Amino acid sequence: MAHLRSVSGLLVAALALCACAENPQQLNTTYLDRYAEPNPTPASFVECHGFNCSVRTRVSLSAKEWRRVAAIFTPRANDAKAERQRIARAVMLMQKLVGEKAGTAAHQWTHQNMLVLPNLGDRTQLDCIDTSVNTWTYLTLMERAHLFHFHRVAKLAYGGYPNDLDPRNTAVLEEIGGSNFAIDPSLVDYNVPPLVMPLATWLAPWPPNVSEIEPPAPKRG
Questions:
Q1: pTM for the whole thing?
Q2: Which of 66, 75, 135, 147 is the most exposed place for a label (fewest CB within 10 A)?
Q3: What is the chain's pLDDT, residue by residue, as a tens digit (221 residues)?
Q4: For the chain, what are the domain ranges?
């Protein structure tokens, strides 16, 4: 039996390595297919929380709230990096607006040192599945409102085995004519801009090279 388990483990590892070779950026729609609303609008979309999207709360933003999000992109950014900074600020604002309605506008005590600790049944807490699906929803709303000029919304990405032992998920931005970037709120606390870094950095063994994480936009005023 031990020999069979060892052969089975080698087979799983080989299949995983093969899959990584075919899809080196590990882009997928697994959690989007399972949890995301495919056609969200500011007036009606779903927020995941509680870990593994165990709680799904329907949320609506008012026209005034949505204008606050859109205003972050005015005037238009001069380049892709500046646009990513604005996107990070817009995601942070969306988390705040949505969190006040869904009950997740709270200190994320499970988020420590770029890892997510066990939840213990706290519905206010978000794991990487919650944040990746939610961030994809926010980005999709922004993209469909034509707020992006240098990016497109990509699939989610999965990091971890067999490269390292810290499994994780993230939303992804595709720079038009350029690289993919991870935008990952699961690495920071509530009301903090999500970390943005090249997807290749995010996929590398954890923790990431902090010198490759893009700095947040400077505070206005």
A1: 0.89
A2: 75
A3: 333 333 233 333 333 433 444 677 899 999 999 999 999 999 999 999 999 999 999 999 999 999 999 999 999 999 999 999 999 999 999 999 999 999 999 999 999 999 999 999 999 999 999 999 999 999 999 999 999 999 999 999 999 877 678 899 999 999 999 999 999 999 999 999 999 999 999 999 999 999 999 998 876 64
A4: 26-212
